[in-house]
Structures are given as structure tokens and as C-alpha cells.
Amino acid sequence: MIRSLLLPGALSATLLLAAVTAATAAARPLDDSDVNVPDAGVVLHERDGDPWRVTAFSKEVSASHRATYLRSADGISFTKKKGYDELVPAPKGGKVAGVPYSSPGVFDSVVIFDDKGKAERIRTVRKPLSTAYPAWTRDGRKLVLSIQKDGITTVGFVIVDPVTGTSKAVTVRGVEEHAVFQWTPDGRYLTAGFWDQEWDVRVIRQDGRTHRTLRNVGIMHGADSFSPSGKHLLTLCLSMEASNFCVWDFKSGKLIKRVNDESRAWTIGWWDDQHLATVVRDDDDDHRAVVTDLNGDITRVLATFSAKANRERVDLVYTPSR
Fold first, then answer.
1. Which of 8-22, 29-43, 190-204, 235-249 is the least confident region?
2. What angle do CA 108, 110, 116 make, to 5 degrees?
3. Nearest 10 degrees: Cα torsion 93, 97, 98, 104
4. In Å, how far from its chain's centre is CA 11?
5. 22, 37, 122, 203: which could join 27 in a potential S-S bond, CB 3.0 to 4.6 Å?
6. Mean per-residue pLDDT for 272-293?
7. CA-CA distance, 91 to 223, in Å (whole number)?
């Protein structure tokens, strides 16, 4: 999601560490903008006024599980949350969605932590189906998770309402097997990738019916593939000659810009309407999270990954800071 999967509110100062158990991983400020996160093996290069902020991270601990950490309100420590593969703070702060390693009984579930530390488990789908890749609406009111039939193949989505503690599962025919469902910027519809002799993106009603289709636009990229304004959609568009990031006008479906993906290891998402956040690697396989303009030129380094972070496949979770 990085979430570098990246992922597109601020991490609320009221997000209490009571929501998280286990030891706190010290994150040491290096100067006014750098924060060293030893358990991640990453140094964050942050600035006041950044539109995005790292609010959680995960790393691989086995072939089937990841360890997850949530950032504290002080901004300089991360606390490990045992038993979760994913932690995704909501936009606007106050809630965190956790995908547990396992759920009791015959139903899979998602756990919602509120700003007072209370945890509520909400059923999603009947096993052996499972759910993954939680994505919040931009107002932080609802959550969608992708349904997987074998831990890999996407077959639909689950909409979760944390206020009522309810969920609704919907099967979607023809969705691409590795697709991840996301909300449109207004929170009215969902989007996902479909393969039908070409890479399409469908806009889907909450009952699973197709609202509209963007034909042959490529593979959606980033935890939120939509620009902050909501006007543009980011994809990886493939051809026989090269792969490129493509920026599309979401309303018309017209191509706005091609950006050479060069050495990008993976996509975080949009930084602002004129810049992207990606992870790049150099010839020595060193990784950095960077900001690039729409010409593909690096304008800033956001995080530096150590060899340890690369081995453990560290994913940084970014959420909007305003």
C-alpha cells in the first residue's frame, strides 16, 4: 500500500498508544528534518508542511507474516502491534484499521482501533475467503478491503462501516486477479483493474455494478491512485517498447502525461498534483523513497532504506497530513 504501498488525514495527536500493545521502537531525530527508525532500518527525511507523513510501517518476519508498527503522537517513536499483517491509519486521524494474522470462528475480520484505544473486531467474509489491503475513504468514514479466495486472487470487496460496526461483501466478476479496490476521491464509488485483452480500470458502484470503464489505461498504481485534487488517475501503462507511469484525466479518460518509470522499484502514489512519490533503486540495489516531477526528475529524497530494510521488505504507510 508503499503502501509505499505508499499509500492517499493527519495522524491525530489523540491517537493514543493504548491502541497498541508491545514494546516501543525508539526513533531518533537526527536533525530538524531526519528521523532514524532503527526497527525499520530507514531514515525519514521529513519537513514541516509536507502533504504526507509516515504513520506506520511493516516488515517481513516470515514467508507468511509481517510485523507492524504504528507511529506515536510524539512523532519520534513507533510501537509494534503484535498479530497484524497490516495497519492503516485513517485520513483525518483517530482510527486505525488492522488486518490480523488470524480471526476466531468461521469469519475473517478487520479490527478498528479508535482514538481512545478501544478495539472493535468486525466480520468481513466467511472463511476460507479472506480480506486484505484496507483503504479508507478520504473523509475516513468508511473502509474497503479486497476479498481473496486463496490469499492471492481477488474476487470482490468488503465495505466496512466503523460507526455501525457492519460490513457488506460483494463479489465482482472479471476483476483482475491481483487487483486492489480503492475509493474514488468523492467516496461514492470504488475502482479496480480488469483484464479483457487490455488493461482497463472500472468505476464500480457499491453494489458491485459497473458505473463506467476507462479502457486500456494500464494498471492502477499507489495506495491512492488519484491525485489530491481528484482530477487525475495514475497507472503503469505497458507497451512492447517500455513501461511508463501514465497520468489520465479521470473525467474524460484522456491521457495527460507519460512519465518514464526508469529505475522505480515501486510506486507510493501522488505527493501533490504535480509530483509523484516513488521508491527508486540504484546500481548497488540501494533504495530511496523520492519525490519526482511529472518529467520523472527527482526533486527530493523522502526516506533512505538500509540493506536491512531491503532484506525485510519494509513498507512505509503514508497518510495525508492535512
1. 8-22
2. 150
3. 140
4. 15
5. 37
6. 89
7. 13
Task: State mean pLDDT over 286-315.
Answer: 93
Report the C-alpha gap between 154 and 258 in whole angstroms.
28
Task: Say how far apart CA 241 and CA 220 lie, in whole Å.
Answer: 19
Measured CA to CA, the distance from residue 280 to residue 304 in angstroms comes to: 10
Whether the Cβ atoms of residue 303 and residue 316 lie closer than 8 Å to each other: yes
Helix H, strand E, coil C: the string for the chain is CCCECECCCCCCCCCCHHHCCCCEEECEECCCCEEEECCCCEEEECCCCCCEEEEEEEEECCCCCEEEEEECCCCCEEEEECCEEEEEECCCCCCEEEEECCCCCCEEEEEEECCCCCEEEEEEEECCCEEEEEEECCCCCCEEEEEECCCCCEEEEEEEECCCCEEEEEECCCECCCCCCEECCCCCCEEEEEECCCEEEEEECCCCCEEEEECCCCEECCCCCECCCCCEEEEEEECCCCEEEEEEECCCCCEEEEEECCCEEEEEEEEECCEEEEEEECCCCCEEEEEEECCCCEEEEEEEECHHHHHCCCEEEEEECC
Residue 151 buriedness (CB in 10 A; 0-12 / 13-18 / 19+): exposed
